[in-house]
Automatic annotation (TrEMBL):
<dbReference type="Pfam" id="PF01765">
    <property type="entry name" value="RRF"/>
</dbReference>
<protein>
    <recommendedName>
        <fullName>Ribosome-recycling factor</fullName>
    </recommendedName>
</protein>
<keyword id="KW-0963">Cytoplasm</keyword>
<comment type="similarity">
    <text>Belongs to the RRF family.</text>
</comment>
<feature type="coiled-coil region">
    <location>
        <begin position="3"/>
        <end position="30"/>
    </location>
</feature>
<dbReference type="InterPro" id="IPR036191">
    <property type="entry name" value="RRF_sf"/>
</dbReference>
<feature type="coiled-coil region">
    <location>
        <begin position="125"/>
        <end position="152"/>
    </location>
</feature>
<comment type="function">
    <text>Responsible for the release of ribosomes from messenger RNA at the termination of protein biosynthesis. May increase the efficiency of translation by recycling ribosomes from one round of translation to another.</text>
</comment>
<keyword id="KW-0648">Protein biosynthesis</keyword>
<dbReference type="InterPro" id="IPR002661">
    <property type="entry name" value="Ribosome_recyc_fac"/>
</dbReference>
<dbReference type="InterPro" id="IPR023584">
    <property type="entry name" value="Ribosome_recyc_fac_dom"/>
</dbReference>
<feature type="domain" description="Ribosome recycling factor">
    <location>
        <begin position="20"/>
        <end position="182"/>
    </location>
</feature>
<keyword id="KW-0175">Coiled coil</keyword>
Length: 185
């Protein structure tokens, strides 16, 4: 019984960790990364379409992303979509290929991005704590309904807390790594 709750909690924690990982890849560092453009949508036959579904994205150099559209007639639309995004990027094209140079970050901007990353991490830690509270409530209810003993309930609480600490430290490690990427010049 308690094991099912713990397995469900671990699954929820993994999903929370994956959400944070996706969110952190969108935060710009001084390096080029095709994931930076995940949020860019291009008007394609009347509907907003993810850039990755319209072109091949590559990182040939640490500060450059190249975009090879599969259809030449959408180059200007892709360029416009990147300019309209809040990424602060300035693409240029040569008729067949779009080049997106990644400008160096200022010290002030780096500090802002560190704060954004920390805020995202804190939000996901709060999500972990809420999930822990729900799991603890389920275990308490099992004990109240006489499905498990009081000892099993306390062992369940200990296991839930140890899993929570494990995932909290994983979040901290992800944040430390991202912060190091951001402040690296």
């Amino acid at each position: 019984m308690v094991q099912e709750v713990i397995e469900g909690l671990r699954s929820d924690y993994e999903e929370t960790l994956n959400k944070l990982r996706r969110e952190l890849t969108k935060i710009r560092t001084g390096r080029a990364n095709v994931n930076m453009l995940d949020g860019v949508r291009v008007e394609y036959y009347g509907s907003p379409t993810p850039l990755s579904q319209l072109a091949t994205l590559r990182v040939p150099e640490p500060r450059l992303i190249t975009i090879q559209p599969w259809e030449k007639n959408i180059i200007s639309d892709i360029e416009k979509a990147i300019q309209m995004s809040d990424l602060g990027l300035n693409p240029s094209n040569d008729g067949t290929l779009i080049r997106v140079p990644i400008p160096a970050l200022t010290g002030e901007r780096r500090q802002e991005l560190v704060k954004v990353a920390r805020r995202a991490g804190e939000d996901h830690k709060i999500a972990l704590r809420n999930q822990r509270r729900d799991a603890n409530d389920m275990v308490k209810q099992m004990e109240k309904d006489s499905e498990i003993t009081e000892d099993e309930m306390h062992k369940g609480f200990e296991k839930i807390n140890s899993i929570t600490e494990e995932f909290t430290s994983k979040i901290d490690a992800m944040l430390d790594k991202k912060e190091a990427e951001i402040v690296e010049v």
